Amino acid sequence: MMLGMVGLGRMGANLLRRAMAAGIGGAGFDRDAAAVAALVAEGARGADSLPALVALLPAPRTVWVMLPAGEITEAALRELHALLAPGDTIIEGGNSLYKDSARRAAEAAAKGLRYLDVGTSGGVWGLQRGYCLMIGGEDAAVRDHDALWRALAPGEAAAPPTPGAAGDGRAAQGYVHCGPSGAGHYAKMVHNGIEYGMMQAVAEGLDLLRRGPFPAMPLPEVTEAWRRGSVVSSWLLDLTAQALAADPELKEYGGVVSDSGEGRWTVDAAVEHAVPAPVLAAALFARFRSRGVENFADKALSAMRKGFGGHLEPKAPDA
Questions:
Q1: Residue-number span of the structural domain to which 229 is assigned
Q2: Which of 112, 108, 110 is nearest to 100 (CA)?
């Protein structure tokens, strides 16, 4: 098998590296020639255009598009539709709106192509830790790529087993077939909405510790202790403790917290389906508020975003 990757940014490049480390051949294309050259130096085959990338891949081809949601992804898919042959597979792993994924699957099917929407979580640590993969599309296409999912996912050793867990074992390895086209990106959308809520809870708690009745509260030590045996232990807490250990006042961070769009779509879906989601909505609105008056909680949110995704928020002009 050979995987063609379109988009060699923080996620795409490391996805290709992890696949190659598992013995899967890799080829990559990016408009940044330096990004392509870096992967070629590590054993991948490089292309300077989408037609050149497709020409490198043996049939039936698998092309993974890892680009920002929106027109840049749409343009790449349109071009691939003209370049690929019936039976080839397009995997779309960006943070796209699930309704767009369902439409794109129908457009690909009309040309005899298979389309899988794969919500991908793991951030800048995915190369080492593995990626959580939430997959939408036809079951046959999903199963035909099981070797790829196993290569990218953390594997069963990454977490203790859940007693009585349902499923066929794929979820225990870190990847799950969520349902038909669109289901993978829908699961990733809700995942990101939950992420907003969890991050907001940690950030507000830290602000309360810092500004409460014990002003000398040692936040780095408290969060480090919470990592061991606490019911709130998590990867987000790990990243927060790491940031506080390096800078207890989080002076590096301006506290202006961006939102990727997935949080907004999650709240939109909650309204559309009349599902109460007050915590997720409040966490999104808190990010909007962060673009006004800075506080410590917002700096903690910025620290977490940098920790898992490599996002360093710009400081406000007067910060």
A1: 187-309
A2: 108
